[in-house]
Design brief:
Elements: H1 5-12, H2 19-27, E1 29-34, E2 45-49, E3 52-58, E4 64-68, E5 82-84, E6 87-89, E7 96-98, E8 103-105, H3 113-119, E9 127-130, E10 133-137, E11 159-166, H4 170-178, H5 183-186, H6 188-193, E12 210-216, E13 219-228, E14 232-241, E15 245-248, E16 253-262, E17 265-273, H7 309-313, H8 324-334, H9 351-368, E18 384-388
Antiparallel strand pairs: 1-10, 2-3, 3-4, 5-6, 6-7, 7-8, 9-10, 11-17, 12-13, 13-14, 14-15, 14-18, 15-16, 16-17
Amino acid sequence: MSLKPEQNDLLTRVENSAPMGRYLKETMWFPVMISSVLEPAAPPRLVRLIGENYVIFRGESGRVGFFAELCPHRNASLLLARNEGDALRCIFHGWKFSAEGRTLEVPTQRTHHDEFCRRVPLEHFPTHEAGGVIWVWLGNGKPALLPDFLFMKLSGEHVAPAHSILDFNWIQAVEGLVDSAHVSILHTDWLKGMAINPALANAAHDAAPVYEFEEKPDGFRYAAIRDAPDNHKYVRITEYVGPWSVFTPGDQRSCYICIPVDNEHTAFWSFRHDPDGSIGEGPWKPKGDPMNYPPPLPGDRSNRWGQDREAMRRGSFSGFPQHLAHEDQAAAYSQGKIATRAREYLNAGDAGVMRMRNWLLRAVKDFEAGSVAPPVARTINAGQGVIGDGEDWRVQDFFGPPRAVPAVLETP
């Protein structure tokens, strides 16, 4: 069933106090910067979320500050500010703000200086570091508990975060992750060799998976079940944790988080993680700048986003041989900055996409009505494997024995 225009707007629009933007800001911690990238005493960096600009910096002692971009005095950009100690000093009139959000100095205020500093309305926001990433709370009230995901407890070689900016709406990014049917078609090139993930090659046997769902308080879990040789079934289990986190099966654990930068841009985060070993080489382990990986597609609609038609003549199905993610990105780019969805003609292969949309529509409407579901703890098992005909995928654990996960991580 296609979406009505007003439903699509409710899902996709986040700017200017749109309901979805308010819901996300008041309920979620946002990943914003890979910790290793933000060096002490370095210049502040720009972060854009939900259509608004912010600056982030790390002071000399390692403390992180996160402010609205514009100085509260005369609205000069704090991107220009000096990083002094554990504070930013605006270069316009020298006002100085600590990482904790206190106004320390106002050189242009001769009398009642300290009292004046206490009244300065600096917009600053709590931060926390976990999973190799800095997270920020943008809401007005007390911060919610941090996500209970396993990778939030990991560090060093056990977790490999990566980030890229995509020039289309965040819902398109989430849809690509909860759509298991496209794997057998769009990723044909990668299924042929499967040096990346040999188990995934089984998806080539059946392009029409059967979906079976388990509802969860914070989303859903589903199996995409495909016929495999010798009366077996290939099972891909995906976990959706609303509103924007998706765990997909792979040779190592993978979580993807799609953050709306604004109505037409998405911050796409991947967290490859392994509690028992190091993250090996692969398409999702960052190479070069982890805040820009994988690199963006080379082009736009005018050149088919860099599609290699000569490679297609040589046997490539999609024409995007450089990186698996480029195939997903090209498909999403081709839908437009904000897909309208009014003329879609969906089928059984879109069951995950439809369920995700319905979950989000309910969540934002409940939020507008004053009801917010508290965070829950559950073990994530987004595995894949081959099972015998008649075996129950629900009792399988393709990563070994269930791992105990803390109910919550307390915020500082």
